[in-house]
Amino acid sequence: MSSHAKKLIEVALPLAEINDAAAREKSMRHGHPSTLHLWWARRPLAAARAVLFGQLVDDPSAYPDELAQDPQKIKAAEKALGRKMRGDTDLAIKEILVNQERERLFEIIKQLVIWENTTKESVLEPAREEIRASWRRTCQREGKPLDTPLPPVLDPFAGGGAIPLEAQRLGMEAHASDLNPVAVLINKAMIEIPPRFADQPPVHPTARSEKGTSGWKGAAGLAEDVRRYGDWMREEALKRIGHLYPPYTLTQELLDTRPDLVSAGYMEGDELTVIAWLWARTVPSPNPALNGKPVPLVSSFWLSKKKGKEAYVEPILENGEYRFEVRVGKPPAEQREYTDSGTKTGRGANFLCLLSQVPVEGTHVKASGMAGDLDSTLMAVVCEGKKGRVYLPPTKEIENIAREAVPNWKPEQKLNHDPRAIWTPPYGLAHYSDLFTDRQLVALNTFCDLVSEAREKVIADAQAAQLPDDSRSLEQQGTGPTAYADAVAYYLAFQVDQLSNHCSTICGWHTNNTQLRNTFSRQAIPMTWDYAESNPFCGSSGSLSNLQERAIKGMGSLPASPNAVVTQENASVRPIEQGTVISTDPPYYDNIGYADLSDFFYVWLRRSLKEIHDPILGTMLVPKAEELIAAPYRQGGKNEAEKFFLKGMTAVAKRLSVHSSDSAPVTIYYAFKQSEMSAGGAVSTGWATFLDALIQADFSIVGTWPMRTEMTSKIGQNANMLASSIVLVCRKREITAQTATRRDFIKALKHELPLSLKDLQTGNISPVDLPQSSIGPGIGIFSRYQQVLEADGSSMSVRSALQLINAEVSEILEGQVAEMDDWTRFAVKWYTEYGFNSGPFGDANVLATAYDVAVSGVAESGILESGQNQVRIFTPAELPTDWDPDTDDRLTVWEVVHHLIRILESEGESAASKILGQRSIQSNDLADNAKTLAYRLFTICEEKKWAELGKSYNGLVIAWPELEKLANDLENPTLTQADLI
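Structure (tokenized):
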């Protein structure tokens, strides 16, 4: 058996607080490092920080004797137990000591994950000291000197850099690598560059004269230079290309048709700054009578759906031509449907010809695009007004100015047509240059050129500021003027990249919040029909000034020590120092094509950083052949892609297993798509293949932690959206691991899985996460065996194991309901068949007899109505509003759940908590049973594909901790000074 000490993450974590902080962080924008550069499926810093802390810190069960040496801890434990310690081996006291110590560590984590504490040394330093203390214990156990340096932390799939960044923040030497050059540059900007120039004042002469050269901590001086030279870039660009972005000048002719502008105080000659130009793509009309006249492809004519600020485009047809007018207010009822759908009909690229109403089919749109006949027409202009957005009609002059732009360079690299995520090539947009208007290309070219010019200015200013005489570049580990200028240039190039994300013809206009929708609002490059062209010189979201300000704030949260190492390497062959601590967030099978999507940014990075001869930028596009994802279009089909992923992930996992630290487990994140989250027993190929790779690499999965790592607001909107992550805690499988039979495995599942499932429910795992989360403990049992043999002697596959685990989970959930009252059990079975719909009385009567109840009795309990040979369960909204559980003489778990849902959805958490806190519910264990029933009903909804019904049960469980807290506050109110007087 292994002699290593268990780490905290192998025993317990304050999961609810970690998930709350992670979910909250996903909506953070200002001050977050993610604002430096977009990356797909970036882990929340809170989750990464908590996982690393739990991975590096000993669980108190590893040092009870040490705890027993502290008199104050002994005294507290004795008080909790109610008696004195009896001898050095008093197990009861030691158990209390361990639990109290674990709670103390939990409090550190709870503070650590709060967003506002991200840079607070008063919170971070105690966490670092716990890591150092655990390492000293490890050194003592292994006979090493106590001052042996901490091991490095490695993420070989560094991606967006959350894990290496948080390792560095926790005082560890962070090592990050990735095959993708965009990811490598992001990691360099976050963890490698700031320590190189830590505590250094800016070199910009104005900044030095205005703010002095002392008091610059961490990356503050570097951030100030990025701000100053970024400002110079923007001002210089405005001089060069500002004529392409003129203001909108109001004419008397326009004012005569827009009383809303006149009443708002606008006058002839007023110049309004443009936020965006809204365009519609056009194709030649398929109607032969129109001789190929271009007609617009419009998915919606809405400009603003904000209440009280509605605006829309109305197409005006005259003499065989069309033009667009802007209307304020709601469209007439007869125009509403047309405004909603534009000229689009159904799904895909199907439209109607605006002039003739002839169908414009998808085949025609694609053929027009491939023939180079895809064009665009201006529909409206959005401007900054006195009190918000002002929507104005297009003019020929404005449209002509846009068409005057002539770029001197275009990114002619071809897009890979990944049918899962890159959808423009079939429409003729096959090169990266095709994703931008000529005016956008001119702007991006200009800013790229200015990055190089700004770099030269930084070199000159750094020499004048007498930076160390070091001629090496940043890539050569230099610290002098050239290296510093390279560093500033990286951050400025990132701003150009961020601008490109808001400056392409894939960008849309969000009519609900009246803002630009960026290119990567999803993990794909979709085809857009009507698009928004932003003004990089305005002050709105997506402008260069806005993006720069967000990036500067993001730099403020970067740690500037200790030193870190970032390299571009393939994870399957990169060298790993023996004893390295591994925490990684590998690719998720086929969920995201990182390399294909990264090309969008990479083409501009190479242009911006052309004066920096970094080998990372040596290839024309991002490397793809070795990228460890399952990409059927690239690897010859679905089966070949699965084999490629399994082989590659197994090779990586074996390297991690062989070289990782024995003193700490390996932590590996796996994220799920919403479409993978099935309670019906189906096994995701990606999940099965991923687990198979780990098990083949001789890993035993000793812990699993479901993390809410994605924005919950997006779940359900898109099947490809990531929903949550499972953090797998892995140890090298013991060499003494036994071979088990199928019967042994099932027996172990039945013995251990119920308690694990109950722990997950107690930890308030949301029902939508429970199906995949509960697989973790099951696969942990499976992976601890050398192999599991089927009845025929063959080795059980991971897929078969997952199917057995799923079946056992369903059985456990059903068994939990079996312990509830008979009326609830009847209702659950009836609901499984009919939901809230009516069913035959005869069926209900047969079912009631089986549960030893009468239909009339169930009706009297308030669960259902019975009449005219039909039976129907009441929906939550139909339940009586004067219900009082304390006076209900036939109180059921079913009623508690659905009344809580009714009150929660109509009156909110405070009102629902009053029900939860009532004595009749608390004294009869109805609260715990109600929560358990909500889990079961959600799984039924998932199996039946009743998505809307399932939301209510999921929402109730998610709200449960707050309901309990509010209920407890009602029972134990906090006294105020006024109360005491």
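The chain has a mean pLDDT of 89. The longest helix spans residues 438-464.
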